[in-house]
Amino acid sequence: MKIIQRYLLSEFFQPLLFIVLAFVGLYIIAQLVDEMRMFVNNHAPLTMIVLYYLYRIPYFIVQIMPVSILLSALLSLGQLARQNELIAMRSCGLSFGQVAFPILMAALGIVGLVLVFDEAIIPYTNPRAEYIKRVNIEHKTDDSYLYRRDQITRSLSGNRIIFMRHLDAQAGKMSEIIYLQLTPQMNIQRRVDAHLGHYESGSWVFENGTDRSFDDQGQVTAFTPFKTLNLEFYDPPKEFIREEKDTHQLLSMPMRELKKRIRILQEAGNSTAKEEVNYHLKWAFPFANFVLALLGVAFPFIFPSGKRALVGAAIGFVITLVTGFFYIGFIAVGTSLGNNGTLSPVVSVWLANVVFAGLGFWLMSKART
Known about the structure:
By secondary structure, the chain is an alpha+beta fold. 61% of the residues lie in helices and 17% in strands. It has eleven helices and six strands. The protein has helices at 3-41, 46-82, 85-91, 96-120, 122-137, 247-251, 255-267, 273-284, 288-302, 309-339, 345-368; strands at 148-156, 160-168, 173-182, 188-200, 203-214, 220-230. The longest helix is centred in the first third of the chain and has 39 residues, at 3-41.
């Protein structure tokens, strides 16, 4: 690596570290103000509060990293512009691309790190933070909500529906079961009523019930009481504990688990718009680090330098804030349109990156001239 590249990278990473730490500090202060009453009311130990925020920080860093990179690129290159170092570099034969290249490659490297971080670290830290809040701070020791549900109705693949009055997924048992097999015209073809069901060797066994078959007119053609009955019904107990998850929870899931959730929902005939949007967002959002870096390296070359560098820095800072605001707005609008089905999941989450990447390359072309 050339000396000038090392110098540019050091000038870029120093403000980046400061900005990230400043954002983290503001986040902790804001959260403390918001959650202080909860801590006081529950007499939360200081160690648990510290651990709670330590586990929260990784997710927050991923969220603020793109804007941090944008600000860092602007501040580092803006400082070089105020000291006429950019002019000196250009006069020595360095092109705009040679100056911007180290920072853009660093941003691309951060994209890869965020993808790994998002897949390997956050799926562990976010649930751990939730556990600390619920058990160690709020003292809610009953974790039955994790595996017990009442009044569950699920659509299954193959035009099947199952209702159960109670499920204990940890024990692999369900009770008061109604299992329906439907025709393509959604008429009842078969109905199984059972008092109990238990999960055994990869399939469900129903106990103490009746098995009825129906013709096209809805008349019973067969009626068979049973003590035990095996059906082609293999869905594991935990699949029925599939509670609704918000965006924060979906983004905290590993991609493979989110992909599996989408497949199960699709097989059951349920809408997967929100899950698909968040799955593609887990790919698209890390690339915002590179997209906003494009804008950050172009601004200092476009605005005044030298004696008027302070004016250029002020203009650049304001535009940077506005750019970050509009990027977040694009993400919010795109995901909203994707969740309600107006746009496809891929378009809804990549739209902001495409628009701002186009703006970034256009600004870079202006900076070259």
